[in-house]
Amino acid sequence: MKTILSVLLVMAFVSCSKKDRFARDIEKRELDAKTDSTITINMEEHMISKKNLSEIICDVSYLELEATEGSYLTIPINIKLTDSLIYVLDLDEHLRCFNRYGKFLRNSYKKGRGQGEVISLYDFDVDKDYLYLLDGAKSAILRYTHDGHFVDLCQLPFRAIRFKQMHNGWYLFALAPFTMTDKEENYSIVLTDSSFAVKKKYFVSLGIEKSAPVARTPYFENSANSVYFAPIYQRSIYQLRDSILFMKYYLNFGTPYFEPSRNVNGEQESQEKGILYTYGNPIHANDYLIQNFYTSREVKGLFLYDIQKDESLFIKEVINDMDNVIRFNFDLTKFYDVHQNLFVGLTDVYFKGSHTEEEIKEGTSHLSDDAKSVLVRNEGEEGINPILMFYRLRKDIIK
Q1: Are 138 and 158 spatial neighbours (Cβ–Cβ below 8 Å)?
Q2: 226-265 pLDDT tens trace
């Protein structure tokens, strides 16, 4: 019995030691990645305990996407807009096209191996003229007009899992592991010209330990020309500028780094040590850069950086005081329309029958009657498509 107990204690000590070493290694590598251009923000000087949601967002409206046979969506994972269209990609690789009033227009591609067909849709992007699809199985970009006509297919010299078209016609690709032509040279991101010739490579991947500063495969969120991303479980935000990718912001919380675990002590340990880390990517608006921070996978803080004023704010808790919003989480925001200064995301919906009367009453007691008519649905309407939420940020969030 003593032997077993001793072994368990040694295993626990080794596990904790490895976790501590990994955290220290992550911190060192991230600090080493700072440059003279990196802006270090000491977060204790910019923290507030709480702020009302009505002081952060405004102009909230909702749009129900038409649900007809062939237009149903499962879990939306990406939303992109043009001046007149809304494209929604779901977890099952359905890419539905709606007009800006929510009317279903068409499915955006056909699955298959023929010309103009897609085997496996990994990602998509849009501009004013075309829809671009990344077929991961074909390692190709397929181009379509916005009325659904296939234009052409361009083969890629690598295997990509995500991509983004830049304002100058170039492309950013997040790569699948070990997909460069030279197997000895492997990178997480490449920048290509309009013909997909590689012009720049970023973040060499030489295994987990060597690639620790960018543990997530980098990708860039959906606002026009946005070129920011946040390495997972860390405290930095990178920017791509003039083909140079560098750490733009480093948020100094003055607390230890931590590699979150799924064990029962993870959340308690994180809270006790005051550990905060990035998980999702930042949202880049015209005036603000916005980043959620987590403690053991729970949202515990919202960081806002006013790009024009060069001022920042860290809000520990956002209080929902609005009568037209059920719950609010910036992670549900899927797109930012730079031309209209408009955020687009998803909203929760209550269904009578799927929720008890007590649950609905408790969750919607603060809502106006107009909001309830949209966000509380009758039994049997579970087949409706997701409801989109549109909103804007206030200009005077940081005072």
Answers
A1: no
A2: 678 887 778 888 888 888 888 899 999 888 776 545 444 5
- Tokens, residue 131: 């829809």
The residue type of 145 is: T
pLDDT given for residue 203 in this prediction = 72
Helix (H, G, I), strand (E, B) or coil at 310: coil
- C-alpha 263/C-alpha 222 separation (Å) is 33
DSSP string, 26-43: HHHHHHHT--TT-EEEEG
Q: Which residues of the chain have pLDDT under 70?
A: 1-22, 177-187, 204-226, 258-267, 269, 296-299, 379-383
pLDDT of residue 209: 36
| DSSP-derived secondary structure letter, 183 | T
305 close to 329: Cβ distance less than 8 angstroms: no
**Residue among 332, 320, 328, 323 at smallest CA distance from 372:** 323
- According to the model, what pLDDT value does residue 124 have? 94
Would you say 185 and 162 are in contact if contact means Cβ atoms under 8 Å apart?
Answer: no
Q: Give CA 57 to chain center in angstroms.
A: 19
Distance CA 129, CA 82 (A): 9
Residue 31 φ then ψ, to 5°: -65, -35
- 305: exposed, middle or buried (Cβ count in 10 Å: 0-12, 13-18, 19+): buried
**Which residues are registered as beta bridge partners of 198?**
192
Work out the end-to-end distance of the chain between its first and last CA atoms, rounded to an integer number of angstroms.
62
pTM (predicted TM-score): 0.85
